[in-house]
Fold Chitin synthase III catalytic subunit.
Amino acid sequence: MTGFGDFDSLCRTVPSYTWCNLFYRQLLEVHESALLTSNLSTPASDAGMGINPTCAIRRMGRQGSLGNIANIVLCALSMVLIGALVWATNRRKAAVGRIELRTFLVLYFLTLPLQLLTTGAIFEQGSTALVALTAIHAGVVAALFWSLLANALVATQVVEDGTPSSLIPFYAIAIVFFAATTYISFDIGLHITNAFGPSSPPEALRSIPLFVLTSIWPAVTVLLYFGLMAYIVLAVLNEIRPMWFYILSAALFVLSQLDYFLLNKVICKGSNSKVDGTFIATLLETAAVGVLYLAWKSITEESWDEDAYYPS
């Protein structure tokens, strides 16, 4: 029976589930002789992502496989779009929360090449390179969602945006989330200490801290962000139009998660393990970030010649 913090079911049923990379090596090292046949039926040199997944894209170069090529292409295209949004954000010198939003976009930009490498079926499962990249990816994701929540807090103008009182805690907490999540992920993947790995029993692929930081924490921050921005737009600014941008962004994000966890396997099986649903999830997530930028743009001013959107 699956318990809280168990990744076993996710690693079997969700193709290209990133955090499964952290457990493969753990299974190889713990009770190796017993687990090679019961949990790792495919050799590491050929294995796709997951632990005995119901559907997985074969590693790039094996039997002519292009790896997770669709998601690789979408990640590359998304990097171009997000780079353009970072540039556009930086040009809006008088906009409230400009530096904080730019940091959020930069962090999202960083997740894209990491996602390309960790879910692209490029590296051998259990390799140190794949574990290290996945651990860093997890750290950036945790910091990314803190930056999302921080953008909503900045929008309340409790502290003035762009000042040390805003930026020092903003960056300090982001670094804490990145460092803690990355360390936990490294410990799970490389079994550095006994603090966070291996799970018991190993077959459960259990890590409550990793589950909280990569699943619960993002969900909580999204809900808090949406609630705070709804209050600011509707109650403080007394606007309606910007709220539709936030609603659309939230809807796109929810659809991306539904695709990832529900349609991913269907697409993988339907394509005979050539592609899975991660490229659609990436497209929807990037679209959600793009619409989030439009929402921010709609409630901020571009130049110092105009009044600020929010009273100090």
